[in-house]
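Most newcomers find our protein records easier to grasp once they have seen one. Read left to right, the backbone structure tokens trace the chain's path through space. Nothing more is needed to start thinking about how sequence determines fold. An example says more than a description, so a record of this kind follows:
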Amino acid sequence: MTSTDATMQDLLGCRRCPRLAAFRGNLPAAPATHRDCAGGYWAKPVPGFGDPEAEVLLIGLAPGFHGANRTGRPFTGDYAGDFMYRCLYDMGFANLPESLARGDGFTLRNLYITNAVKCVPPENKPTPQEVAQCAPYLAAEIAALPRLKYVIALGKIAHDAFVRYLKSQGHAVRLADYPFAHGLHHHIPGYTPLLVDSYHTSRLNLNTRRMTRERFIAIFAALGLSVSPDAR
């Protein structure tokens, strides 16, 4: 077993963050009107998901309370994921237009998706210490992507988590030198993959039109990224 395998095997039983472990361990009852709530909740740290040969890594913030925290797959089961996965399907990165649940046959091609924080945080707001505690898991996922060329950070927390990862790997970077801005490309000296910033696909950003289908797809188009639908 490699060190990466061991680190990720440790993830599902992780209790490094007492606040997050207590929160996911004491879930309130789901709203009766919420879809598929009868199936229960994953209520554990959520590992990344996708193509192990991916050239593109997409990093989000954290599992959604009624989304990935329920289904056990990043961006699956909530509004942000419904929007994002449909776009990815239309660009050829997914074999189906919807990601519904683990084991539903949904797969990704040339794309791997994860979150900076693996456990659902109260009010969707992890503390800086909680982001730091998850850093080894993000590092292990990156280490397991040998063909990585692009890292797309959805939001500032994901952006900062990746820059801190680079620093942990010995790269001379400072957060102040890499400001977050939608559509901004960051070339890291001595590091081949390109860091690209994007607004998150959160319900708030979609409702306010800060994020739109056109804006999300443009992030990929600017990099010349697409997968032939025939490959699905």
